[in-house]
Amino acid sequence: MKPKVISWNVRELNEYNKRLQVRNLLRQWKGNIICLQETKLEFITRKIVRSLWRGHHVGWLYLPSKGASGGVLIMFDKRVVDRLEDCVGEFTVAFSFENGFQWAFAGVYGPNIFFVIEVYNPNIDAEIRILWEELARLLSWWELPSCIGGDFNVSRFPSERSSMSHITPTMRGFSDFISKQALMDIPLTGGSYSWSNTREIPS
């Protein structure tokens, strides 16, 4: 069976009713590997995992939030893929899997720089470099066909943001990383943007 991967920024999983909504949608979508970002949970227990995905065949690993920010949870169906190795980094949760062939998946929640005015800032520059270096090390360590999904908090092109008219340093860095690692950026289909908030200048 080919695994179906679902990657979703859920924007918090603190409340049971929110987890129930997420569980109902995951049940409809029938994914085998689920990557949830921005959980805003410092601790994830088996009880929380079971509130999202019922059954005894679920494997899971998480990156805790930093206070009320970030967090990544990956769950997978152990009947579909066998976990070989796993790793939790500063911004990533990653697995190598076996299901007829070996491959790797990394779930990302990038440094939260999306709303920062794009001028040079050494702290922002350092954090985003840590993300690219962390992912590059993972790809180099396992040397397997890999899929990277999640919320990078970075876009590649001005057309991917409704209020942006020029290419920024972080956009160039994202494109450079994709090129150096010989990755393929799967294009967005459907809407022009992945989400829009209620600010005067929506993202």
TrEMBL record:
Domain (Endonuclease/exonuclease/phosphatase) ranges: 6-168
Keywords from the UniProt entry: Hydrolase, Magnesium, Manganese, Metal-binding
Cofactor binding, note field: Probably binds two magnesium or manganese ions per subunit.
GO molecular function terms noted in the UniProt entry: DNA-(apurinic or apyrimidinic site) endonuclease activity; double-stranded DNA 3'-5' DNA exonuclease activity; metal ion binding; phosphoric diester hydrolase activity
Positions annotated to bind Mg(2+): N9, E38
Protein name, per record: Endonuclease/exonuclease/phosphatase domain-containing protein
Keyword Ribonucleoprotein attached: no
Essential cofactor(s): Mg(2+); Mn(2+)
Membrane-spanning intervals of the chain: none
GO biological process, one term: base-excision repair
